[in-house]
Amino acid sequence: MWIFGYGSLIFRPSFPYEERREAWLTGWERRFWQGSTDHRGMPEYPGRVVTLVPEPGARCWGVAYRIAPERVEEVLTHLDFREQGGYERHRVRLETREPPSLDALVYVAGPSNPHYLGPAPLEEIAAVVRSAHGPSGPNREYVRLLAEALAQAGEHDPHVAELVRLL
Prior knowledge:
Structural class: alpha+beta
Distance between the termini: 37 Å
Helix content: 25-40%
CATH architecture: Roll
Radius of gyration: 15 Å
Shape: globular
Largest sheet: 5 strands, mixed
CATH superfamily: Gamma-glutamyl cyclotransferase-like
CATH topology: Hypothetical upf0131 protein ytfp
Number of helices: 5
């Protein structure tokens, strides 16, 4: 089984895996539209973290992790808890540098979850990120670590890059 990470799973997977590969998900883009009341914010002041939103023609870079069969249940239990703030599992097809493509699970927080904040001007998102802090640390750190991971991979995400510039 493969898990696709496009946010904090890139820089902090926190579960055992057998293999790690760069991967791309077509038709989706990364956006800071999900509220975080359990990691990078608090219930009274949610931070902003990434989710995926459908966008025809888009291509989102991330990391695919292969999970050993005997660890699947353990890893999914861990991720279901970690991603409990509105994320749901989805099956997707990923492109990698070497064929074949991969079937994977990805956690996506859609508009129907109670923590979904949705689109906002990046200036407003930056204002939230500057001041939000939760049990996993400052919201600003999350953005920085994601931007660094993207830069190390040679990947450019205009939404993340503009948010970093505003911070």
